[in-house]
ArgE/DapE family deacylase (Salicibibacter cibarius), 427 residues
Amino acid sequence: MDTIIPNPISQKIDELWTEEIVFLQEISRFPSVSGKEKALQAYIADYLISELNMDVDRFTPDIKEIANHPGFSPPEWGYEESDVVIAKQAGPTTPIGKSLIFQGHVDVVSPEPTSLWSSDPWVPIFRDGKMYGRGVADMKAGITAMIFAYKAIISAGYKPGADFMIQSVVDEERTGNGALATLNKGYTADGALIPEPFGLKAAKAQVGSLWFRINIDTALKDKNINQVVNAVERSQLIISALQEYEKLMNERPKHDAFKDMPHPVDINIGRFHAGDFPSNVPVKAVMEGRVGLYPGQSINAVKKELREWVLEAADEDPWLSKQPPEITFFGFHAEGVEMDDQSPFFKTLDDAHETVLQQPAERNVLSSTTDARFFNLYYDTPATCYGPEGGNFHEIDEWVDLDSVKQVTKVYAEFLSQWCGLIPRHS
């Protein structure tokens, strides 16, 4: 296959490689856990202005503006420390290609327990061709690749032949409201690429995600009954019920995109709290978790079924039947989505992949959710995830393979050059 990307751009990526790794290392030092992204966003905004001469807008997501959007997820937190950064490069008056968004999220999950890491999660280190640290794979390596793909293009004397944006968004790990607020403000394009670290394979489908909270209270309101029941012990009944519900979901007929995946939809209990003293019997317990759902599956239907499943289990218990658990939902209310992987957008990405790697393009289906859903479901915009190879996302000793970061940078540059077209920078 003949390459579309001018050779000078590929050479520039090689020349800028050390600088690219230093940039990745620098942004990975920011402890940008969800809700505390502002300092890193200021750094990225300054870089896009000073180094790439892009037109940058920064704003704080306004919940009131998106609360009625079908893709909205209800947060229990504010966005005072969560700026979104939009960097724009206008194309020519008469574009020669299609407009494009590179979008990545800067928020990361907690590294706790940090004592189990091989090194400080906020001081990225190199070992055996990999970089280790919280967020290096998910997804600061991808953000770095998309920035340096564009930097290589302009350094080689070219610019996109259509409108181009780099979007650095927030709160992807809890709601996706940062990406939704961005699109709701009108920052859209003809296609979008998100650099999630799934091993240089384009995602063709992903599950949805719904967060739930279950409150268990075993303190009977009838003061005439002098009996204490352990809420932790009663919680085991609820956990068992959730495990049975998860088993049922995966025994049902699968969505076509997930038919080869043995266990595509999970229930994860991520938080549990009960009691305050070893010699006291806890009478209150709270568990929080996440349930997956297929593309096309109704969030409200899953809410209803999960609630009924838990309450039916509680009703079989002589104590919980008197005071049923309270089930509520917060955070992620994300629908699943299937992409059209035969579209011109995917075919252009396939061409870019095959040009750079000299290997056939592959597909991936995700048992997790990403911001790609907003583009495909609500804005009629083709979008997918394609990023470097990494591991231990949301776990101890997260890592990213550095060779794959360079490969992805070249694929992004190739993809941009084909999708937008390229013109001389000073034309």
About this structure: Residues 208-334 form a domain with the Alpha-Beta Plaits fold (CATH 3.30.70.360). The chain has a mean pLDDT of 95. The longest strand covers residues 208-217. The CA atoms of residues 18 and 24 lie 10 Å apart.
